[in-house]
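Pipeline run #58 for the internal structure catalog. This entry was flagged by the ingest filter as a single-chain record with no existing model, so it goes straight to prediction. Upstream metadata was stripped on purpose; only the residue string is passed forward. Reviewer on rotation: M.T. Logging verbosity set to normal.
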Amino acid sequence: MRYVILAMAILLCAGVPARSQAQTQVSIGIGNRGVSLGFVMSTYPTLVRIPGYPVYYDQRVDSNYFFYDGLYWVFQDDNWYSSPWYNGPWDMISPAYVPLFILRIPVRYYRRPPAYFRGWRDDEAPRWGEHWGRDWERQRSGWDSWNRRSVPRAAPLPTYQRNYNGSRYPRRMDQQRSIEARSYRYQPREAVSRQILEQRRQGTQSRDRQQQQQRNAEQQRNVQQQQQRNAEQQRNVQQQQRRNAEQQRNVQQQQQRNTRQQQTAQQQQRQKAQQQQRRPLPAQKARGTDNKDGKGQPADRDMRDRNNKDRGGHP
């Protein structure tokens, strides 16, 4: 089964008043999301109103391309796709949830009709009941009957999207949603249109939450890494401080050793000086031994006096 049916069908809301209908949570069947359809709308489409319908179509493109209730709709390969932006990405919508006025578009406005459209009147809607079977027809009973005098007003075209083409076209849904929130105030009248936008919005919010959680986790990792770096730097500073303190102690100890050595050297010098002061000089010893008469006369003078007497001379 290609489609994932998430909850109640759109038809359950058909008889509910508009105010209650707006408050009713309706889930739709969305198959592949963010699909590329194989064709590219490189520029904003040329949309023309279908007379008598609140629907636009592009008569210049080779595809079944429509705009209704704030969404673009494409019928291709027997599947319906929708997107709030003219070049997708596209969501596949189950036939049970395609809006009624999209189903009612006359055959002549399909620029590329499938083969089974042949033989059907071009001023009437396709015979979807014949194609999709009785189960679908029972579920969407009365889809081709409405009061043609009370057709709702067509949604305003999102012409702001003309400014986004080529490389400027936003590819991500969160980018599209951000631009749309600023530029397009229309609120869809169809429950299915509201639900399509709501599911996209929830998907965008979910991605935003995941991205924010990833950013928070990354920031937390960065904070932890910074804390680890700070702790490592603090350990390095403490180690450097311990090394500086050790070097300072070594310097102080060396200074103390130098001081003690200097004091020892000075003490040794003082002791040596004292010893030298107490020791008699050699000249003093010699003079002390040569004094015979105790008068301090040198002995060689007595010898000269005796020699003079022997020669008859005078002293």
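catalog note: The two ends are 163 Å apart (CA to CA).
catalog note: DSSP finds eight helices and six strands in the chain.
status: ready for reviewer M.T.
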